[in-house]
């Protein structure tokens, strides 16, 4: 019999979302600022890890460092969900560096799409955690009211 996947705990207003770049660096500081403001306006706090200013390189940081930022956010008791800032390419390069036992011990939501999809799927396969294929921080403003309601309805369990 296959074990049922684990649903991480639902978020409540005031909870903290951890933000990090799992692949490429921030390309548009204004889109990041707007995304953070939308999260905060919905009643959530934000905690950033890693380089979160516009970068010129292809990756936000080296593979080990990007994996470490994710581990730091996941291990942080204040952080109740982790939201990718943007996609790009590079998530697959981190898979072998991730601590799946940490993810199992501390169930949280992981949110993103594009290149982040490999992390969402592998989190399910290796840790049995349900993840959310939804907008990232820099795409929240383009998601419209329905998109925001969908994402935060999933995270909180409150569908209005």
Descriptive account of the structure:
The protein is of the alpha/beta class and 160 residues long. The protein has helices at residues 29-41, 63-75, 100-105, 117-127, 144-156; strands at 16-20, 45-48, 79-84, 109-112, 132-133. Strand 4, helix 4 (117-127) and strand 5 (132-133) form a beta-alpha-beta unit. The relative contact order is 0.21. The mean pLDDT is 93.
How confident is the prediction overall: mean pLDDT? Answer: 93
**Unreliable stretches covering 5 or more consecutive residues:** none
**Beginning-to-end CA distance, first to last residue:** 35 Å
How do the helices and strands follow one another from N- to C-terminus? EHEHEHEHEH
Count of discrete alpha- or pi-helical segments spanning 4 or more residues: 5
What value does the Rg take, in angstroms? 15 Å
The biggest sheet amounts to: 5 strands, parallel
* Largest sheet, spatial ordering of strands: 2-1-3-4-5
Tell me how many strands there are: 5
Residue share in helix: 25-40%
Q: Structural class of the helix and strand makeup?
A: alpha/beta
* Strand coverage percent: 5-15%
C-alpha geometry: globular
